[in-house]
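User: Quick one: structure for sequence A, then sequence B.

Assistant: Sequence A:
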Amino acid sequence: MSVGWINRTFVAKRGGAPLVVQALHPIFRGEVNLDIEAITARLAARGLETPRLVRTATGEPWIEAGGVWRALTYVEGETHASLTPTQAREAAALVGRFHRALEGFEHTFHFSRPGAHDTPKHLAKLRGLLDAAPDHGDAQLARAVLDAAASLPTLPSLPTRIVHGDLKATNLRFDGDRARCLLDLDTLAHGTLAVELGDALRSWCNATNEADPEARFDPTIFAAALEGWAPVVRDLVTEAERRSLVGGVETITLELASRFAADLFEDRYFGWDEARFDSRRAHNRARTHAHLSLARSLRAQRDALEARVERAFR
């Protein structure tokens, strides 16, 4: 059932009812399930629906069988690769309720991935791969990503909160146009809203798709998302967080471009769509072009987008 590119996801039946069974990517250890269990309990107590961890018959939160396997409750609904303005508004309001529900919640993570959104680290990795293989077939594309990243805005020091960590469009479950819940909770972590919303909006506001070399940033979706999110979190968000939102989108867009570009050299990390591409490299090449185009489109609209943020928080 999964439209993601990391975990392998299946739907099984237990007593006639659907159950999600996942084989986790090796980047995740089994302890991530303890974090999911604790944080979803908090969300449920605050009235938010989530997939819940289903322990084994012997009470184990996961099993090891050629990797980490776990089961989660199945949430009915649909996922969408792209969002309408109405869906973006609903999704952003749900994200705001998620952030509000976790405000002040103290949790020490059993599992974390330091540097998951360390943009300088990802750019340095790509630069190192390029330096080691300057004649690689995709060297020119890698250089274009690094050139674009050289003029990224500097994000200020920001407070950290518990964030979802991967709010792309396909990680939201919908019932019609109503955003029902967030999916794929392995990336829960302490992080900043600049990164959290940056990753969400680079996905939601892509007017084409994540493999379109002419991807463009849709300001209408951006405005709709702000209309949903800002009223829910207005009293929680600091001025520095507010002012970092647009820069966060651009930063995460180019960070992801650099990660796809790095996998052009390494050819081992991201899953790929075998129905549309003849290789992982071909898919990653398209993804890199798409995110580079998206970042350029956003950059051309930066002033207008920042003004839209200010209006949303008045």
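Sequence B:
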Amino acid sequence: MTLHLLRRTLISSSSFKHEPSNLTKLSNFPLFSTVVTQIRKPTSEITNYLIKNHNFSQETASKTATFLTRLKDFKKSGLVLEFFEKNGFSKTQLEELVIRDPGVLASDLNKSIRVKFEGIKDLGFSNDELANLLCAAPAILTLPRSGGAIVSSISALQNIVGSNSDVTKLLKVCNWFLNGDLNSNLLPNIELMKKCGISQLQIRQNLFSFPRLFLQKHEIIRDCVRRVDEMGLRRDSKMYIHGLRVLKSMTLEKWESKLKLFKNLGFSEGDILSVFRRTPQVFAVSEKKILEVSKLLLSYENVDVAFLVQHPELFIFSAGSRIRPRMEIIGVLLSKSLLLKEPSLTTLCKLDDEAFILRYVIPYVGEVGEVGEKYLVSTGFKSL
């Protein structure tokens, strides 16, 4: 039965077709035509115009001028710049916006920019918040979506993340939230996750860390939920959302390869299911790293497969930069009877670098010798 559960067919990790960049999309329009185009104004004239009329730096003006030479009337772009200036954009914000996506200057001021700008302001964005939003995600202005559709997407994100500043942060991480109707994927996926017992806090955290998980087709997420349930991961577990993410991220071939690897290391099918239920993130670790960590850990006294099944989070740590050097330092301290009690392997691995150094290296810096010095250098710790 466990073998059947483990070998369920997984859906490919990529359900999205490759999306061309905004500039690539724009290249399909006449102003980016590969046909020989008459340059209306020399670059130097446009550069001087941007410096004199809009206070651009020499560097930004030169880069922007190269783009503007492709336009029939570059001064129409000046109207776009004036619009942003009148609405509170600072020089820094304006330059950042243009550098990140010069296609903004080719957008229609009245039919696109003004409509989207006013619509987003109506959602409660101040001029400064709106400037920050557009600098973080200029695709708001350049994507060929209506103002109403863009505003609807931003409104939905407001309701999910709770603040205008967090909407900006999220779109800076991933502007795919602007590409389609969120009612068909994001919102149903979030509702399904809530029904699975995933908290609003976890949803919010993972939305920033793994945004594309939430943008998958709803039927794909439903199928991942079914598989996670079948593998016995409890819905009240904080690991549930990580189980969804890991299953969605892996192809069938990769999943089968991971199962084979664990079996070759001596894990039974029940052991593998237990590892998945405890720490599904382990299955996102590369096979090379799993091999390195398991080989090192199994070389230590009192560490066997049963121990690793109980503490699968150890596979996440680096064998070379964390586990081995820390165990060497503890070995030196124990050999000199400097520790009253041997710390557990899991405790040693979970401590961050600073905590480990302050507890086990600095107090014994004269005793740990070269092993301690090498660790200090490798971690970049300087506060002696």
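Residues 135 and 195 are 36 Å apart (CA to CA). Residues 22-178 form one domain.

User: Thanks, that's what I needed.
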